[in-house]
Design a protein that fits this description.
- The complex is a heterodimer of chains A (306) and B (671).
- Chain A is elongated and about 95 Å long.
- In chain A, helix 1 runs antiparallel to helix 2 and helix 5 packs antiparallel against helix 6.
- Chain A folds into three domains: 167 residues, Sandwich (Immunoglobulin-like); 100 residues, no CATH class; 33 residues, no CATH class.
- The longest helix of chain A is centred in the N-terminal third of the chain and has 26 residues.
- Chain A is of the alpha+beta class and 306 residues long.
- Chain A is 31% helix and 28% strand.
- Chain B folds into four domains: 140 residues, no CATH class; 245 residues, no CATH class; 35 residues; 84 residues, no CATH class.
- Helix content of chain B is 56%, strand content 12%.
- In chain B, the strands form five sheets. A six-stranded antiparallel beta sheet of chain B has the order 8-11-6-2-16-15.
- The chains are: A alpha+beta (306), B alpha+beta (671).
């Protein structure tokens, strides 16, 4: 279990391909024909092809063994979208030691494979995995195979990367249902401020997660350190998104709506909290908060709520 | 789905296919060649994107059906072998038009390799062999392009060439050591394309052969060569004459089969001086063999392979599908069987009851005039000398009473005309006579072997007399003595030589010494090729192994097979082990490791968990300033290579010098 694999004797499988079988059959035909016609040229060709078959076993293996495959970062996606895994093929330096030829990548139990030509493709290689439901997806076993150089053998390996990724619920557009529980008095006021959210309010010291376009670059240039501009709307209102009690059939729909609202609110930089019953996330704003909320939505299980 | 545009592998495959088909144009029907051309053009247009879509499967299915029917019609004339080859080419052409996915492509490549091998059935000369080998290698290259399309051509061809060169020695070992088997079953041969002599001769047939400049066989003599006028290579004896055509007598054929089944071979009693020689016969798809006069097989292998019948004719037990090598011993002084059985007498006096009235009349007169056999024969011969006979390759056709027309009207003809007329005349005169077809003459090459070409084909007769048995008479020699002494090209008129095939015209260049030398050199190479490669058979293999191992006991053969296996394994190890175990780490890293080893020899050990920089400081504390500085630089290079920028040529060189510096400084420090 790792994020990077260097292929070697223990991880590579090699077996004649279907074409390899056909090739051997061809050799047999040539041998019979050459023997019956007492034709040395035909026999010589037959033996040459057999020798080539033998040589290919090693050429094929050595080529494949030069591969080093590692996994890059993965973006979280929404249910129904494809997860895109970034695969990096790193090679040893020097032309002598590079792997060549086409490679096929295929996930365990997936029908489609993608084909990549190592000699002409730029890293990374994107391999997609379709998703249907939200939740934690661990990366399935990845089969990498190669027919280089003459297609007589298939070299393959199964790679199980130590990696999983979250799939968020699919956002379902809906009315905003922000629940303002606390600080009822300020409600009207906060709304007023929210409307003018583009107004400049002041500066604060930059915190990790603040959008870069809020950085006051003039101040940075003057050497005052990283400071963010604060806009009146961004810190004003704070409400709760709640998962209301609902039936089992409905919960995915509700989670989708919550997901939509989380994204909307985060975009408007509204401070909000998330209450899923079993899980509660205190009101906050920013990218990290959004991610935490989405993760909670993704991993939410119905049983706990009940 | 395979990309058709700019797909070099498919284009290469198509190129190989068309080259292959064109090279077999005599074997392949012309409309199939056109089909191949269409497929090639189609691939060309797809490659350059002049046209983008493939033809519809339904259209092609219809085309395939029509072509299949047409081929089935033609297959009656073609015979099994040619039909199969034509079918293969036709199917490949259609497949090439339809080529859509990887499976199609791979199947087509395999089929082309097979077709290349089929080419070897038809042509085995060096030039064709080289051509077919090149095609085969290009097919492999097209496979390589298919599986690594992004690789540069140069790298790719280099890699493929390396593979091929690695495979070659293993193939040679397999070829030499794997036991050669005899034919496992009878294979179909080419109908109508049997080359060389056939077992029927209608005067005029051999004239056709004379236009071919193909090699018929070569003979390598131990010791002296026979004189030109002695070089009568007997091949086919024909005893049945129907007034026009001579052929092997059905009774003779039946008798031959009977003797063969009873395994009762005819062995002539031989005496006198002899010639020992080896004949390398080109494939004829027939069984007859060539030898001078009375010949017996020489050596156990030839004894097994060769069969002789009562007409002193030699046969091979297997059809000559490819080059066939045999050893014989000829006895020119031995008389051919002087006891004539009644059967043979009957066969060789047989003649048609009707036709050729003028000849009959002439002979009955002549016979009355010369009742003694020898005198009668001499009189017939004199007739050929005295009359104004002319030797030509283009005699006028003689349909009605051909012998009459030839002897009394036209008086111009080729060897078969003379032989036919004389044999008929002798039979009419009550002297048993038969026609013998074979070759006469041959070209002597530098290395003391005789090459006999198809244009050396000749026909003569054998007549039987009480005193001398079967005696050879060659009426052609009476008319054109130079034909026998100096070969065909010396007796031909201007317009005749136009007809003769190209090497003869090359032979006409023999006046220029340079051309002649070149021609003879090529002939020598071809001879070596036929003798040592094409003629490498069971017996040659056994001889080679015997020379290598001594007596061929089971134990020794077992050792040989084990040795071969080990040899192949050693070859593989030689090819691949160095690459397998090669240290692929950058030189900077290796230099650092060596430095660590050197330091540990001087008692400074780096334990695994200490980071390189910390260790460098420790070294500076323990060692002299020089050592410390050098090692610090090595450490920096190491860190740079491993964790930052990777290896570079400049740094590799630096690492090398630093390492030698370190070695020196450590030595100084120790002393």
């Amino acid at each position: 279990m790792a994020r990077s694999f260097a292929l070697d004797l223990r991880s590579i499988f090699i077996f004649p391909s279907v074409f390899g079988g056909l090739f051997l059959l061809l050799c047999l035909c040539l041998f019979l024909l050459g023997t019956n016609y007492q034709n040395n040229l035909m026999l010589a060709l037959c033996f040459f092809l057999v020798a080539l078959f033998l040589i290919n076993l090693f050429t094929s293996y050595l080529n494949f063994a030069r591969l080093k495959i590692s996994l890059g970062n993965t973006q979280h996606v929404y249910a129904g979208d494809d997860i895109r895994f970034a695969i990096w093929i790193s090679q040893h330096s020097g032309e002598e030691n590079t792997a060549h030829g086409k490679l096929q990548f295929r996930f365990w139990l997936q029908k489609d494979s993608i084909e990549v030509d190592v000699d002409s493709t730029q890293n990374p290689i994107w391999i997609t995995l379709p998703t249907r439901r939200r939740g934690q997806y661990s990366m399935p076993r990845l089969t990498v195979s190669s027919y280089y150089p003459l297609g007589l053998y298939r070299c393959w390996t199964h790679l199980l990367f130590d990696h999983s990724t979250l799939v968020y619920p699919k956002p379902v557009p809906c009315e905003m249902a922000l629940d303002y529980l606390s600080e009822d008095n300020n409600e009207s006021e906060s709304h007023a401020i929210t409307r003018g959210h583009d107004d400049f309010d002041g500066l604060k010291s930059y915190q990790l997660g603040d959008p870069l376009y809020h950085v006051a670059w003039k101040q940075v240039a003057k050497g005052q350190g990283m400071v963010s501009k604060q806009f009146s709307s961004s810190q004003s209102s704070s409400g709760w998104l709640r998962l209301l009690p609902c039936s089992a059939d409905n919960v995915e729909h509700k989670l989708g709506q919550l997901c939509f609202m989380v994204n909307q609110l985060s975009q408007q930089q509204v401070t909000f909290g998330l209450d899923l019953g079993s899980v509660q996330i205190a009101p906050d704003s920013g990218v990290h908060h959004q991610e935490a909320c989405l993760a909670a939505l993704a991993t939410f299980t119905w049983g706990k709520h009940a | 789905m395979l990309k058709a545009a700019r797909n070099s592998s498919i284009l290469l495959l198509s190129g190989c296919f068309i080259a292959l088909s064109v090279s077999m144009f005599t074997e392949i029907l012309s409309w199939i060649l056109i089909l191949v051309l269409c497929a090639f053009v189609m691939r060309l247009t797809l490659y350059f994107e002049w046209h983008k879509s493939l033809p519809k499967v339904r259209t092609l299915n219809l085309l395939a059906l029509l072509s299949g029917l047409a081929l089935a019609w033609f297959s009656f004339q073609l015979g099994l072998l040619l039909s199969m080859v034509n079918l293969l080419v036709m199917a490949s052409a259609l497949k090439l038009m339809l080529l859509r996915n990887q499976r199609d492509f791979l199947q087509l490549v395999a089929t082309q390799v097979f077709l290349t091998a089929c080419g070897f059935i038809f042509e085995q000369s060096i030039a064709y062999s080289l051509f077919y080998t090149a095609i085969c290698l290009l097919l492999l290259l097209s496979l390589a392009v298919y599986f690594a399309p992004g690789l540069q051509w140069r790298t790719l061809s280099k890699k493929t060439a390396i593979m091929i060169l690695q495979a070659a020695p293993i193939a040679v070992v397999l070829f030499l050591v794997l036991p050669k088997l005899g034919p496992l079953w009878q294979m179909p041969s080419q109908r109508g394309t049997e080359t060389g002599l056939s077992d029927t001769v209608t005067p005029g047939d051999i004239a056709e052969l004379s236009r071919s400049a193909k090699l018929a066989f070569r003979a390598t003599f131990e010791g002296a060569l026979p004189q030109p006028q002695e070089r009568y290579w007997r091949a086919v004896v024909m005893e049945h004459f129907d007034g026009k055509t001579w052929q092997t007598h059905p009774t003779r054929v039946a008798a031959r089969r009977q003797y063969l089944n009873a395994n009762a071979e005819f062995t002539p009693d031989v005496s006198g001086r002899s010639y020992r020689y080896q004949v390398i016969a080109e494939p004829t798809s027939q069984r007859y063999l060539f030898a001078l006069d009375v010949a017996i097989p020489d050596g156990s292998r030839s004894n097994r392979q060769i069969w002789q019948d009562h007409s002193y004719q030699l046969f091979s037990r297997d059809i000559l599908h490819s080059t066939f090598v045999y050893n014989v011993r000829s006895f020119p002084e031995t008389a051919l069987d002087d006891t004539l059985f009644s059967l043979e007498r009957r066969l060789n006096l047989q003649r048609p009851d009707k036709g050729n009235p003028r000849t009959r009349e002439w002979i009955s007169e002549l016979r009355q005039q010369f009742p003694v056999d020898a005198e009668f024969i001499r009189a017939v011969q004199r007739f050929f000398v005295e009359q104004d006979f002319r030797y030509t390759l283009q005699p006028e056709t003689m349909q009605e009473n051909p012998v009459d027309q030839f002897l009394f009207d036209k008086q111009a003809g080729f060897c078969a005309h003379y032989a036919s007329a004389m044999a008929y005349a002798l039979r009419l005169g009550g002297i048993p006579a038969r026609m013998v077809a074979g070759y006469q003459g041959g070209e002597v090459d530098n290395d003391g072997y005789i090459s006999v070409y198809q244009y050396d084909a000749h026909a003569w007769i054998e007549a039987w007399t009480e005193q001398r048995g079967w005696v050879r008479y060659d009426p052609t020699a009476l008319v054109a003595p130079n034909r026998v002494m100096f070969g065909l090209q010396n007796v031909l008129s201007e317009e005749d030589s136009e007809l003769v095939g190209e090497p003869l015209s090359l032979a006409r260049l023999s006046a220029f010494p340079l051309f002649n030398q070149l021609r003879l050199l090529l002939a020598d190479i071809d001879y070596a090729w036929s003798r040592w490669f094409l003629g490498f058979d069971q017996q040659s293999q056994r001889d080679m192994l015997r020379e290598l191992l001594g007596e061929l006991s089971v134990q020794r053969l077992m050792w040989l097979s084990v040795g071969t296996l080990l040899g192949i394994m050693a070859l593989l190890a030689l090819f691949f082990l160095p690459r397998w175990q090669r240290d692929t780490r950058p030189r900077e890293v290796k230099a650092y490791e060596t430095a660590l080893m050197l330091l540990s020899k001087h008692g400074i050990e780096r334990t695994a968990h200490i980071p390189p920089e910390t260790f460098s400081k420790e070294v500076s504390r323990l060692c002299s300033a020089g050592v410390a500085a050098t090692f610090a630089r090595l450490t920096r290079l190491y860190i740079n290579t491993q964790y930052r920028n990777g290896s570079s040529a400049v740094h590799e060189r630096d690492a090398k010098t630093l390492l030698s510096d370190l070695r020196r400084q450590l030595k100084q420090q120790a002393s």
